C-alpha cells in the first residue's frame, strides 16, 4: 500500500518540507533507507545519515535545523520518535486488516462469532465457543470447546487455546503459545509411582494482555489461573496452575512461576527468574534477572540473587565476593603474624 507525504503529514499533524506528492510503501532505518521508504531522525547521533539517506520521507523534530541540503522530503513534528511510532502502529493495523474464513478450517456447532472475523486455513474452533468482533485467528491455530475470546484479539499462527479458557479484549497471543494446558499436578503412590490429579479449572486472561511466543499458561486445578489486564509476558515463560499475575506486570523470557504464586500489580520481573509456589509478591516489586525467589516479597522491594536478597545488599556482597581471594590472602597473612607472635 502506497501513501503520500501529504497523507502522512495529515495523520501526524506535521509540516511538509519538500515534495508533498512523494509516495512511500515501507519503513526503514535512516541509515538503510531507500527509495519509497519512510524513516525518522530522533537521536542527533544519526543526523549525518539525513544527508545521505535514500529514503523518500524523513520525520524530524520541528526544532531541527539541517546544515546541508536534504534530498528527502521532511515532515516536521513535535516529537519525531513518537510520530514514527504512530506510523508503525498504522502500518501494523493495515498489515493485520484481514477478514474472512479460509478453507480448510473447522467451525464446530454452537460457535458464535462477531463481525470481521479472520480465521486462517487449517484452524479449528471447538463447540460453543464465543468469539467477539474483529478477532484474527491465524492459520494452524486451535481453539477448544467453550472458549471465550473478546473483541480485537489476535491469535497468531499455531496458537493453542484449550477448552474453557477466557481471553479478553485487545489481547495478542503469539505463535506457539499454549493457554490452558494441564497444571503439573501428581500425587505419589505407595509403590513410588505418581497418580495424575485432574486439572478441572481454567485460565482467565483479562483485557489488553500480550503473551509472547512459546509461552505456557496452565489451567488451574480448581478455580482459575488469572492473568490480569495489561500484563505483558515475553517469549518462553512458564506460568503454572492457579497463579495470579497482577495488572500491568511485565515478565521477561525464560521465567518460571510455580503453582499458586500470587504476583502483584506493576511488577517488573527479569529474565530467567524462578519463583516458588504458594508465595505472594507485592505490588511494584522489581526482580533482577536470574533471581531465585523462595519466599514472599513485600510491596516495592527490589531483589536479586539466588536465593534472593535485597538488591543493594546483593551488589555490596558481590563487590566483596570479587575481592574474596585478596581477603583470604590477607587473613592468611594475619594468621602467620599471629602464629609468629605466639
Automatic annotation (TrEMBL):
<feature type="active site" description="Proton acceptor">
    <location>
        <position position="241"/>
    </location>
</feature>
<dbReference type="InterPro" id="IPR007691">
    <property type="entry name" value="LpxD"/>
</dbReference>
<comment type="function">
    <text>Catalyzes the N-acylation of UDP-3-O-acylglucosamine using 3-hydroxyacyl-ACP as the acyl donor. Is involved in the biosynthesis of lipid A, a phosphorylated glycolipid that anchors the lipopolysaccharide to the outer membrane of the cell.</text>
</comment>
<dbReference type="GO" id="GO:0103118">
    <property type="term" value="F:UDP-3-O-[(3R)-3-hydroxyacyl]-glucosamine N-acyltransferase activity"/>
</dbReference>
<dbReference type="InterPro" id="IPR011004">
    <property type="entry name" value="Trimer_LpxA-like_sf"/>
</dbReference>
<dbReference type="GO" id="GO:0009245">
    <property type="term" value="P:lipid A biosynthetic process"/>
</dbReference>
<dbReference type="Pfam" id="PF04613">
    <property type="entry name" value="LpxD"/>
</dbReference>
<dbReference type="InterPro" id="IPR020573">
    <property type="entry name" value="UDP_GlcNAc_AcTrfase_non-rep"/>
</dbReference>
<comment type="subunit">
    <text>Homotrimer.</text>
</comment>
<keyword id="KW-0012">Acyltransferase</keyword>
<dbReference type="GO" id="GO:0016410">
    <property type="term" value="F:N-acyltransferase activity"/>
</dbReference>
<comment type="pathway">
    <text>Bacterial outer membrane biogenesis; LPS lipid A biosynthesis.</text>
</comment>
<comment type="similarity">
    <text>Belongs to the transferase hexapeptide repeat family. LpxD subfamily.</text>
</comment>
<dbReference type="GO" id="GO:0016020">
    <property type="term" value="C:membrane"/>
</dbReference>
<feature type="domain" description="UDP-3-O-[3-hydroxymyristoyl] glucosamine N-acyltransferase non-repeat region">
    <location>
        <begin position="22"/>
        <end position="89"/>
    </location>
</feature>
<keyword id="KW-0443">Lipid metabolism</keyword>
<keyword id="KW-0441">Lipid A biosynthesis</keyword>
<keyword id="KW-0444">Lipid biosynthesis</keyword>
<keyword id="KW-0808">Transferase</keyword>
<dbReference type="InterPro" id="IPR001451">
    <property type="entry name" value="Hexapep"/>
</dbReference>
<keyword id="KW-0677">Repeat</keyword>
<dbReference type="Pfam" id="PF00132">
    <property type="entry name" value="Hexapep"/>
</dbReference>
<protein>
    <recommendedName>
        <fullName>UDP-3-O-acylglucosamine N-acyltransferase</fullName>
        <ecNumber>2.3.1.191</ecNumber>
    </recommendedName>
</protein>
